[in-house]
Write a structure and sequence with these properties.
Layout: E1 4-6, E2 21-22, E3 29-30, E4 34-36, H1 56-73, E5 84-98, E6 104-118
The chain binds zinc ion (ZN).
Length: 122
């Protein structure tokens, strides 16, 4: 197994950066970024996307180009659901309104707070 990946961004080699320049004399090219393992922080996260992409731009170029193939790997045909408990409680609050004297006036009202709680499935 090699200790590096080439950036998978389809346009990586078209970015005008000094880090991509290879070759000598009049035979210079812009080359895809080589992502070495062990030599940068990214490799500490074995499944990090940045083991395969040199930056977000290359990652999203790849996603745009291969999106249909990627979602075909694990298509979502039904919505997923998470059981929750919804708690609604009234509480005293206030807002400011313009009164007839063209002044800001503090007006009390009863507000509703909605809290979403998890359900214990144990
Ligand atoms: Zn790249």
């Amino acid at each position: 197994m090699s200790n590096y990946n080439w950036c998978h961004g389809p346009n990586c080699h078209t970015n005008y950066t000094q880090s991509r320049i290879r070759g000598s004399g009049d035979n210079k090219v812009l080359r895809t970024i080589k992502i070495k393992h062990d030599s940068n922080y990214r490799s500490h996260e074995r499944y990090s996307m940045f083991n395969y992409f040199c930056n977000n731009s290359c990652l999203f170029d790849y996603l745009r180009l291969h999106l249909q193939a990627i979602v075909a790997i694990a298509p979502r045909r039904e919505a997923l659901e998470t059981p929750i408990k919804v708690q609604k409680e009234k509480y005293k609050s206030h807002r400011y309104e313009w009164n007839n004297n063209d002044q800001h006036e503090r007006v009390p009202y009863m507000a509703t707070r909605t809290t979403i709680n998890s359900v214990d499935n144990d």
